[in-house]
Amino acid sequence: MKHHCCARMSEMIAVTCDQHPDRFDCPDCLVQYLLKFDEYGLIIHDGGSSSISIAYCPWCGTRLPESKRDQWFVELAALGFDNPTEQEIPERYKSDAWFMETD
Length: 103
Ligand SMILES: [Zn+2]
Ligand SMILES: [Zn+2]
Known about the structure:
Layout: H1 7-14, E1 31-34, E2 39-43, E3 51-53, H2 69-78, H3 97-100
Antiparallel strand pairs: 1-2, 2-3
The structure holds zinc ion (2 copies).
């Protein structure tokens, strides 16, 4: 289990509801966490799946890690993946393993 800054954040990220299987459809779901990018975002309820990345926790004020989204694309490009969201990428890039593992 990923450790978040506070219990409130962990709760909000885990919010699911019976009426909205897709969290982006649910007005009660406010934040999402993308493990592979280490990115926290506020869900924008515009019918799509967009979010605004946030730098600080709205509840406890903790500085959140900077999104590794750009680095993710750079590293995969270096491995020859020019369209990683559509390609079969190494397992470690599907979770936080690619930036957690140090060698
Ligand atoms: Zn927090
Ligand atoms: Zn709902």
